[in-house]
Amino acid sequence: MSTKTTFKRIALVTVAALGFGVLTSVAPASAGNVTPTAITVGTIPTAQVGVSNVTPITVTAPYTAGGSDSFTVNVRVVSAPAGSAFAGLATASKNLAGNAVGDFVTATYATGSTTGAVLTVSLGSTNTGTLGATAIDTADYMTVGSTYASPAGLTAVDGKVGYGFRINLTPDKAGTYSILVSTKAGTTLDPYAAGDANVTYSVSTAAATTKVVLAAVTGSSTANGDGNGQIFKATISDAAGTASQLSAGETITLSSDKTSTVIGQVTQSSGSISFGTAGATSVLDSGDFTNGVAYFAIKDATATAVVAAITATGSGLLASTITSSTTATTVVAGTTTTGTIGDVADAVRPVDFSRYFKASGPRKP
Q: Which of 176, 204, 232 is the last residue of a domain?
C-alpha cells in the first residue's frame, strides 16, 4: 500500500471520528399519510335539542414542516336516547322531504320526529389546513368523517403538535349522547378500528331556559363610544338553577332606555365584538351562549356621562316573562377609576380583570 493511500484512509477515519457530518446527509421528512397519536377534547358546551352543539377537539400527530400530512377524522354517536335517529343506522331514517334515506350529514329524521339529527366535522378557528366535506361512511352507515391535509409550518420540533377541529352534533331527542371520535392515516373514511387514536365524550341536553341574569364583567366605559365599552354577561339557567341553552327559535333581546346606547355582541371563540348602531336592540340566540353564558358590550355614542338601564327579555319562542336588568355606566375620559379592558378575549375566558387596572386609573395591558 502506498504512503499516499495510507494518508487518505487515515484522513477519512479522522473526519468520521470527529463527526463533521460531511460524509452523510439526512433527507427531510416528506408529507404524505400520517398517523395521529392522540385526540383531546376541549370544553363541551351545554346542549339543547335542535341546536348545534360544537365541541372542540385537538388532534396530535407527527406533522411535517411542509404540510399536506393526510388523515381522516371519523365520528360516530355510539349511544343516544331512545327515539333518536342516532340510535340506529342513518338509512333507517329519512331526510326532511321523506323521499330519501338519511345520512346524518344533513338533517336526518327518525320516524315521527320533527327535529333532525346532524353530525359533521369542521375546522377549528385557527386551523388553516384543508378539510374535505363530511360524508357518511357506507361501511356502517353510522360513522361520518372528513379527510384532512395539514398546512405547512406545524411540526413536533417547535412544540406545536396539535390541530383543532370541531365536532358539530345536533341532538334530535332530549337526553345524553356519547360520541366516539377516531382518526386514520390516509384519505379513506373508515369506522373506528383497534389501534386508531380515539376519544369518547358525552353531551347532555339541558332543560328549558327559565331564567336570565345580567351582570357586569368590567368597569365603566369612556364617553364618545371609544374602545370596547363595558363588558357584560347574560347567564341563562333552568328551573333548578343549572346552566341551560336556548332551543331553536328561542332568543333574548337586549335593549337600553337610552337612544345613544350602542350594543355589541362578543364572539367567545375570538373575543371580537360586532357593534350595532346607537339606539338599536341586539338579539342573542343559542350560538352566542356557551355553557349558559353569553357576553356583550355596551358603550355610549355621546360625549357625556350616561347611566343606561340595560334589559334582557325573552323573545322569539322564549317567553317574554323571562327578563333581567342592569345598568351600564359611561364616564367622561379621565374620571374613571376602573377603566376598560384592552383585550376582549380575556373577558370571555374569563380572567382576573384586576391586572388591567391600577389605583390611579387604567393602564394598558
A: 204
